[in-house]
Structure formats: C-alpha cells, structure tokens
Amino acid sequence: MTEVYLNDKIIGETEDGKLFAQQIIDERRKGNLSSEVNVFYDESSDSVLINTTKGRARRPLIIVKDGEPLLKEEHIQKLERGEIGFGDLVKQGIIEYLDAAEEENALIAFYPEQLTPEHTHLEIGPLAMFGLCTSLVPYANFSQGSRVNIGSKGLKQGVGAYCSNWGIRMDMDISLLHTPQIPIVKSIMHDISDYKSHPSGQNVVVAVMSYEGYNMDDAIILNQSSVDRGLARSTYYRPYIAEELRYAGGLVDEIGIPDKDVKGYKSEKDYRHLEEDGVIYIGAKVKEGDVVIGKTSPPRFLSSIDEYALTSATRRESSTTIKHGEGGVVDFVLLSKNEEGNKLVQVKVRDQRIPEIGDKFTSRHGQKGIVGLLLKESDMPFTASGIIPDLIFSPHSIPSRMTIGHLIELVSGKVGALAGRYVNATTFSAENEADLRKELLSLGFRDTGVETMYNGITGEQFKARIFIGNMYYLRLKYMVANKIQSRATGPIQLLTRQPTEGRAKEGGLRLGEMEKDTFVAHGASLTLKERFDSDRTIVPVCEKCGMIAVYNEWKKESYCPLCGENTLINNIEISYAFKLILDELKSLGIYPKLILENKY
Fold first, then answer.
1. Which of 46, 171, 218, 390 is catalytic?
2. Looking at residues 548-574, what average pLDDT do you find?
3. Which parts of 270-363 are beta strand (E)?
C-alpha cells in the first residue's frame, strides 16, 4: 500500500499511488478541487504528498495532452479581445499552477515545436522562468547566469522615479533621478510592467577602451560636460522627526523655541531658522548641527515629589538637529498626530547630488563600477564623426565575466538611436544580432560596432578601432557623500576612552591587527605610536610592587595603596584599554606586576 500525506501528516493509504495522484490532478483540472492543491507522487519512497500550505513557490504552465497544448488560437484571440482573462484559463483547466514538488513529475517544453507525446506541460514563455527585475535585463541568454542575477540586483538599487507621490511622502534614505529615461533596448517586460512610469536610468554613449589607467579594474570615466548638462543628477531626501512624548506624572515634551534658562541651551545662532512654533520654515538652507525642530523635555530623574514644582526651571533641551555630515534645503514640513494623539512634526531635507569620483554606476548586465575620473569634454576621445562618449568603459571587464549581452546592447542601442526606434531584446526571443548588424551597415556605420577614434588631448588617431555605441546605464544609490568619513578629535566612549564607532556618531576608523602588520612590514612602525594613542593615558606606577598607584588631587601627590607613601612612584604612558585589562586581571585574583626599566 502507498502512504498518502496531506501537508506532511499521514491521512491514509491507497493501492495505486500514481493513479491516485493522477485522479486528484484530473479533478483539479475539472474544477471540482481547488486550484491551490498540488499533489506529488514520490516513486523513491512510494508515497503521495498533497500540499495546500501557504508560501509555496508556484508557477503557471500550459497543460499538454498527447503532444498538443490545450491553449488554442481561439483562446489567444479571446484574450486579446478581452472576452476572457487569465483566471478563466485556470478554471477551464488549460493552465495550471505547479509547485516545486509537483514539477518533479512534469516534463516541460520551452517552445511548441519541441513538444513530443511524453511532454506534460508547455512554458507560457521562456521569460516566465525569471522574476520581474531579471526579465528587464536585455539579452540575458547571452550572459553568464550569475551576472544576470547581479544585473537584476542593480536594477533594484538604481536611482529613479520610485513612485509618483514622493513629494508628500516621508520615506527614509531616498534618492530621485532628475531626468530618468526609457531604455532604447528593452524587453517585453518593460511594456507589461509599465516601466515608462518609473524609469531608473539614462541612455548614454559608451566607448569600450582604456584611458590612462583611470578606468582600470571596474572603474569608469565620465564626461564632465555631460555631468554639467545633468547626466545622472539626483536629489537625496532624508526626514527628521520629533514628537511630544508623555511621561509619568503628567509631564510632557514641548515643541517650540527653547528658553535661555533651559539646561543644555545651544546658542541663538543654532535656532535662527525656527519660526514661532519651533519648527523650521520651508526653503531654509541647513547644515550640520542646525536645529530643525526645537523641543524641551522634563528632567530625566525626579528624586522627590517636592521637585515637581520646579520643573519649569529645570527642563532640558532635546531639539532635533541635522546629523553629522549632512545638510541641504528644507523641502517639506508635516504637522500631524501619532497613535496616542501627541503632536508629531516631520521635516524632509533635500540635498542635490551631482556625480563625483567614487559614485557607483552599473549597466543592466552586472557590470558595476565606480567613477574613477571626471574628464573635460575637450580631453575626451572623439570619433571621426565628432561623437564624444559620455562614459568610458574598461575592456578588461568583459573576458572573465563573459557578459556578451553587454556588447550586443551597445550595438543594438546604436541601431535604435540611429533608426529612431526601440529594439526588442527580450531574453530567448530578441531581435537577431545578424539583422541588427545589417541595419547598422545600412545606416552608414561599420557592422562590427567599431569606429575610428582620436585622442582628445593630442588629436592623434588611435591605432586601434574602438567599440562604441549607446547603452542604458543606471546610477546606484551608493554615493560617496553618504559614505565619506573622517575625524580628528571628537566624542569618545565612556568605558574605553576610545573614539565612538560609526559614521553617524562622528566615529573613527579602526586600525586593526592586519593594518598594523602592513605598517610594520613597510618599516613605518613609529606611525603605530601615533595611530594607537587615541586612548593614551598617564598613570602613576609604584616601582616596588609594580601596581598602579593613586594620585591625590588635593595634595598633588601620588601614593601606593599597598606600599604606603614613602615609595618611588613614576608616571608612565599606557593605553587606557591596557589599564582596563590590568583591572580585569586584578578582579580575577591575578597580580599584574609592571616592571619598569630605565627609559634611557
């Protein structure tokens, strides 16, 4: 007998598992069972697994009987006329959804002409194996699989028009491209997904060549003049939020301009942008440290009931200020209430971002790179017809990655730009490369996509012909302005006295074990003295017992708690972290004796 499982729980047995599974499938196709039910006969364990649970990956396929698909021309015509929908085809048993398990028992054909009597299903289209973003990648079947996935990820991170109501939304960490464009080279999914309503890239002229080593590895070179005219220009938005919280004892926060007697009052200059209600005005130019929402809070700790009367005088400053390393122009102010009915103020600040060295760009083929140089138009190489590329792409990025789709897009983009049409580059059903080359030849260019180019600085002709064409490039949300970090002196941690961690806290960059090794190997070990003194401290040490002594502030002298006052005590310079580990050892009952040697 064959065991039958429903959602991994045994529900009974049957004589013929294969027949039983087929009967369930037939009933589902007739509409007597829910289309959500999937059944799988496992020959290896001779068991039937029926699944109706949530979260399964299911995909639609056309049912095939005796080598003929059930979807006929009449169905397609009815779909085009709008007489029936996709759901009707599922109800009629023409299309069914298979989950990962049931797919194991299916033999699926890519195209109708490949069908044989053994086939059970036919793909609606080969593109259906991809997700939304991956099906936006042109000529994906010419590139390596992993690169197609990276290209899909790049499309998700591209800066564009992410929604139409961005002006009244308070989204965190958002960028908006000023002049997004529809790609010349596009797939069928661009039309299905209405990509023109939310594009996220621009069509640029790309030359594949090296230039003075500034685009080595994955770096790219941008035309400064193209950037000046608005190429890849975007705006970065960040909200600042403050709310009037309620505390025990009826105390509340107050949004407004703080009084001068409030604890922690900054200075009049910091509050200069605030209006009477304590909120900044739209259009104010703000920089790091400026107050955008003024607020005061009651004191943190009230020891006795008598102090409640003094709260007005002892309020503390708790305004919202522009974070370290940020700034811009106030774009939008929203006054509302939160779930508890308390006042909520949100201020959106915008900052224009112009492409600079270190900003990240990518094509749709996973060829991501950062800007290595911004070059004036007069110094850029140019073609015989006077075309100057917007972007110079390194040829070394192609051989090991095998992204041939990248190169085909350059040729087809060139054809589309010259012929004034969109090129269909849908995966598995794109326009033929040979036909595109013929069209390029008829338009007066070489069919190989190469052109004679000249050095912009010397005017000399390059001995090699350069591959050049039009391409869709995306600017990614990772920008230098959001990542740049540096500090001199600044805030330190309470315990270790070392600099705080993280860019937001104005923190330092850690020089670790491996970085230390590079200094030592380079012979610059004295640099470590400078690098490792962020928590330098001077402690008195008893020469007799080797323990850290105590400094008496009143008497201005040191004494050893073990040996008394009549011992020799020296001040030595150590790291505060080392002093902490000595304290840890003492707490374990270990005696860490410091043996001092003569400095000279």
1. 218
2. 89
3. 285-287, 291-293, 295-297, 316-317, 320-321, 327-337, 343-353, 360-363
